[in-house]
Amino acid sequence: MSSAETLTSQQYIQHHLTNLTLGFHPEHGLGFAHDSAEAAEMGFWAINVDTMFFSILLGSVFIWLFRKVAESATAGVPGGAQNFVEWIVDFVEENVRGSFSGKNPMVAPLALTIFVWVFLMNLMDLLPVDLIPHLFGQLMAVFGADPHHVYLKVVPTTDPNATFGMALMVFFMVLYYSVKMKGVGGFLGELTLQPFGKWGMPANLILEGISLLSKPVSLALRLFGNMYAGEMIFILIALLYGGGVVLDGTAGVLQFVWAVFHILIITLQAFIFMVLTIVYLDMAHQEHH
Amino acid sequence: MNINLTLFAQMITFAVFVGFCMKYVWPPIVNALAERKAKIAEGLAAGERGHQEKALGEQRALEVMKEAKATAAEIVGQAQKRATDIVEEAKVDARTEGDRIVAAAQAEIEREANRAREELREKVATLAIAAAEKILKKEIDIDIHRSIVDDFAKQL
Residue A149 and residue A155: Cα distance in Å, rounded? Predict the structure, then answer.
């Protein structure tokens, strides 16, 4: 726990849960929010710079690595990087083949991007919670900013904007392919004519509408919730540091154990997001379900 | 933790990454994988074919060897037969030649005997005439009695 003297536990936790928000404040004008209340006052037209930075950085790492391999991909004996990339591609392709029955060249690359990108963003959770925010605070202090009001969240998937951004894109794709494959009538029929037949139309609409809308919401909140909770536990463990040898030792052990367990969670969440995307798109492509 | 513009920015970012992945990343890798799969299948098929061809070649070699052996045996048989024939022929030739030589020798002997007999006859005639001449002296005219003596000599 950094700067234990000047921060209460609550402030420490709050600090870690606030994004670096750039926006136009009604009183202070354009700038970074100094606390979460200010960020809230900025309203919709503000942007979480840390989320954008880390998600784009990690997405670029993914694109760079895979593009490098794709450029030099040979059918001969693969090298180390190609082997690794092919292993992932094969894994994703197998999942798509298993769950997606239609023909759409977009689904597999979409699934690959989701899997690797989400995994990399989740992976940021394994970095010590204070490492990058603290360094960033010190760096900003050089430019005259108060490090206590410099916020940084390094795990983009703990920002609902990121998870809802992906989930909404998946949702729009589901809508687009539903209409494209079944026509407007077919899609509306699916929403209103089952499961109770045409006389139960309102009930059908409520049931199917909820089922449709729950897809992006559950997709986004599942990832967000898991990552947010995992991050929270890391922060709580980090609070134990600085409380003497016994607490430090306990915190060290706990952090290690939770990190090991978290490796499973971050992979699993990336995998679930990918599989559900494939399944939703498969349902959108199917005539009857 | 507010929903703000980041949401749209993330949606665009996501779309860009997916688009890039779909256009520049996925196809080359999957193509390479498919190509390798085809190559491996081809290699396996070629191996299988080679195996079959090897078995066929072995069988053919066996057949050729068997044929060669049969031919060799036949040739040896023929040679043996020919050798026997030649020996047999030589035997016949030798016998014929021997017979011929014997016959020629006998003919020679006959001729020699005849010649000796002829000579003897001549000599007997001369001797007889000389003896007769000595015995008879003047009473004998050589020209008249010559034919008588010749006739006699011929009867010898």
Answer: 18
Q: Report residues of chain A scoring pLDDT below 70.
A: 1-7, 288-289
Torsion-angle region of A235 (φ positive above 0: left; ψ -120 to 50: alpha; else: beta)? alpha
Residues of A in contact with B9 (CB under 8 A): 47, 52, 161, 165
When CB atoms are compared, the residue of B11, B29, B38 closest to A70 is B29
Say yes or no: ipTM exceeds 0.90: no
Phi and psi angles of residue A146, each rounded to the nearest 5 degrees, phi first: -80, 115
Integer Cα distance of B14 and A59 in angstroms: 9
Please tell me if residue B80 touches chain A, with a CB cutoff of 8 Å: no
In one-letter notation, the amino acid at residue B31 is: N
Indicate yes or no: CB of A55 within 8 angstroms of CB of B10: yes
Q: How far is residue A53's CA from residue A61's CA, in Å, rounded to a whole number?
A: 12
Residue of A nearest to B26 (CA): A109
- E runs forming strands in A46-203: 46-48
User: How many A/B residue pairs have CB atoms within 8 Å?
Assistant: 135
- A178 sits in the region (left: phi over 0; alpha: psi -120 to 50; else beta) called alpha
Which of these, A232, A171, A225, A48, lies nearest to B2 by C-alpha position? A48
A45 at interface of B, judged by CB pairs closer than 8 A? yes
Q: Is B144 on the interface with A (CB under 8 A)?
A: no
In angstroms, rounded to a whole number, what is the distance separating the alpha carbons of residues A269 and A222?
Answer: 8
pTM confidence score: 0.75
Is residue B139 scored above 70 in pLDDT?
Answer: no
B29, A85 contact by CB (below 8 A): yes
pLDDT of residue A32: 84
Q: Rounded to whole angstroms, how far apart are CA atoms A144 and A138?
A: 10
The residue in chain B having the minimum alpha-carbon distance to the alpha carbon of residue A51 is B6
Cα distance between residue B70 and residue B64, in whole Å: 10
Which candidate, B141, B15, B111, places its Cα nearest to that of A110? B15
Average pLDDT over residues B142-148: 77
